[in-house]
Task: inverse folding
């Protein structure tokens, strides 16, 4: 993010430690007059675009010609044809043509409808050149800032659920095969995520292609923009990378947000370098001019620390088709540090929990959440690398790692619990996925939140073990664990206590996660079962679902549920509209409470305690009257 590389007398913005060609290379020979670019610019009318064809005229004289525009469905069926006659002056000629296809199928993650645009150039009635680009009809923008801020895609509210991807790949390090690019998008969708982030590094076009085809939103950073500091040469490189990124990727319907800098700007104050800040603001304006149809953010993180909340550099951004640089309205804060697992303290009641916030006037986006380590799927990677002749930068590390885990299971007689290395890896991965899922749920039950980014997506060998997939894009545990908390419609069951003494009554709150516009009077059935499946409690309560753009709604709070048996008590909720027919499927939800009976359990005084903090030591002393030494 920050420090440049010194190369002789020059400073260079940093990048990943790999070199080589990172994508397809084409050599194109052109006539003096040719099409240099075709930009399909989305508009606030989702079925309307501005088709902007740029023609380069290097003939040195004016040329009469015409541009033919054709819009086709992905199967080749033409839906619109236009011809524009024009005079091409020497140099670049940008030819904007507003187009509207009233019956166009809109693009979104559930319906990734793609179209193809072709611009053909003729000169003096003879064909000269053509250029084809894929695109989608869609509109994404923040709306309602300063009142009820939300993000909308094609007019419908969307709450972003994403993960930050550092852009590391197996074997070559820097770019994916087509198979891995497709796996990345499919696994993200299996988790129930609707977006991924190119984090601290420019994205691979092949990944955006797959996101376009399969339906996944993207957020993109160029990487290392701020490491140029105030060095003119490095600044020029960083600026050029940012602008090229915008121009290269602006036709992808999956790409919805640009961001210039990850973190690092928690230093604004009396020592602010206003000259450097003006350079950054200039670059933001110029990037926005290349693509005015998207939101561009200055930085991700540390919003809300400025003395003046209406003039916060960490909130600086530009909105679609808005030439103003806004210093308020986009609230992004990072809470990347763990802890290592989900804690009961993260949910106490409807106003004391991890996701609670009252900032409804700004887009609230939690840009890095919960870095939790778990190992890669070493068993799956071992199978993938079998017979490989090129292990690349990371393959031998994974093979050695797998061998060490395998030997550990044997030498410690753990095969009964973990027959194979992959069983051990998945068991640890489950802790990470459940933690992230529960934090996502806490975020979604508070309707003022607009986005949550898992820290992070892929893990790799040298750092960032917190990914929910490994470098080969294998999920670290069953994707259904995380997908449960990303459902568009379910009842979030929130016990205020999760570990209790036997015989307790646990207050439980019930929320409706509702992205399907369910509304009206409903019956909420609440029940509990002990670990043997015996029902211990049930009740029915009338509630009203608000629907519309209320995506997180508290239905009922403080229902006291008795815990009558040791072990896990499962609390279930079933919501059914009163006006529904018997064939309607109820909206479901669940969680568990663990009860233990410690009073009758005796402990030996022969031992020691090894722990972080003093919870075990205090329990033994206060509840059992036992003083046990710390492990030496």
Result:
């Amino acid at each position: 993010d920050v420090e440049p590389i010194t190369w002789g007398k020059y400073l260079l913005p940093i990048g990943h430690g790999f070199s080589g060609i990172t994508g397809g290379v084409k050599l194109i020979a052109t006539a003096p007059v040719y099409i240099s670019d075709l930009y399909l610019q989305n508009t606030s009318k989702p079925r309307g675009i501005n088709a902007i064809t740029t023609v380069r005229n290097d003939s040195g004289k004016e040329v009469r010609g015409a541009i033919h525009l054709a819009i086709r469905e992905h199967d080749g069926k033409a839906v619109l044809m236009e011809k524009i006659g024009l005079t091409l002056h020497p140099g670049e000629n940008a030819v904007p043509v507003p187009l509207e296809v009233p019956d166009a199928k809109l693009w979104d993650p559930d319906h990734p409808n793609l179209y193809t645009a072709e611009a053909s150039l003729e000169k003096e009635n003879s064909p000269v050149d053509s250029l084809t680009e894929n695109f989608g009809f869609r509109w994404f923008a923040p709306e309602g800032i300063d009142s009820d801020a939300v993000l909308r895609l094609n007019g419908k509210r969307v709450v972003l659920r994403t993960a930050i991807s550092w852009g590391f790949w197996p074997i070559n390090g820097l770019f994916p095969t087509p198979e891995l690019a497709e796996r990345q998008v499919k696994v993200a969708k299996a988790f129930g995520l609707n977006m991924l982030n190119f984090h601290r590094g420019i994205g691979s076009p092949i990944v955006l292609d797959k996101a376009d085809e399969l339906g996944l939103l993207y957020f993109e950073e160029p990487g290392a923009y701020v490491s140029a500091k105030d060095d003119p040469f490095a600044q020029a490189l960083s600026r050029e990378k940012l602008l090229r990124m915008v121009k290269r990727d602006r036709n992808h319907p999956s790409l919805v947000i640009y961001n210039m800098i990850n973190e690092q700007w928690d230093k604004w104050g009396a020592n602010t370098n206003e000259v450097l800040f003006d350079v950054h603001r200039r670059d933001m304006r110029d990037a926005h001019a290349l693509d005015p149809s998207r939101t561009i953010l200055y930085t991700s993180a540390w919003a809300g620390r400025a003395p003046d909340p209406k003039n916060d550099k960490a909130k600086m951004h530009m909105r679609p088709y808005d030439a103003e640089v806004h210093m308020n309205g986009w609230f992004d804060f990072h809470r990347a540090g763990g802890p290592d697992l989900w804690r009961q303290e993260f949910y106490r009641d409807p106003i004391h929990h991890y996701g609670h916030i009252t900032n409804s006037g700004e887009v609230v986006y939690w840009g890095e959440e919960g870095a939790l380590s778990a190992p890669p799927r070493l068993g799956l990677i071992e199978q993938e690398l079998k017979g490989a002749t090129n292990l690349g930068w990371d393959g031998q590390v994974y093979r050695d790692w797998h061998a060490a885990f395998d030997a550990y299971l044997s030498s410690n007689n753990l095969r009964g619990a973990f027959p194979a290395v992959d069983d051990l890896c998945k068991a640890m991965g489950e802790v990470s996925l459940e933690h992230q899922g529960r934090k996502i749920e806490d975020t979604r039950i508070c309707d003022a939140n607009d986005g949550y980014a898992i820290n992070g997506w892929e893990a790799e060998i040298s750092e960032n073990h917190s990914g929910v997939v490994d470098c080969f894009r294998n999920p670290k545990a069953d994707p259904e664990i995380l997908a449960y908390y990303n459902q568009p419609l379910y009842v979030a069951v929130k016990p205020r206590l999760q570990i209790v003494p036997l015989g307790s009554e646990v207050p439980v709150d019930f929320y409706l996660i509702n992205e399907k516009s369910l509304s009206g009077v409903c019956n909420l059935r609440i029940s509990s079962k002990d670990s043997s499946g015996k029902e211990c409690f049930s009740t029915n309560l009338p509630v009203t679902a608000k629907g519309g753009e209320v995506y997180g709604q508290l239905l009922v709070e403080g229902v006291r549920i008795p815990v009558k048996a040791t072990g896990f008590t499962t609390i279930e909720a079933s919501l059914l509209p009163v006006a529904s027919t018997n064939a309607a499927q109820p909206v479901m939800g669940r969680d568990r409470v663990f009860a233990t009976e410690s009073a009758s359990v005796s402990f030996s005084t022969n031992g020691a305690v090894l722990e972080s903090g003093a919870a075990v030591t205090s329990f033994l002393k206060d509840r059992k009257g036992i003083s046990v030494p710390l492990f030496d």
Remarks:
- Residues 406 and 412 are 10 Å apart (CA to CA).
- The first strand starts at residue 5 and ends at 7.
- The chain has a mean pLDDT of 94.
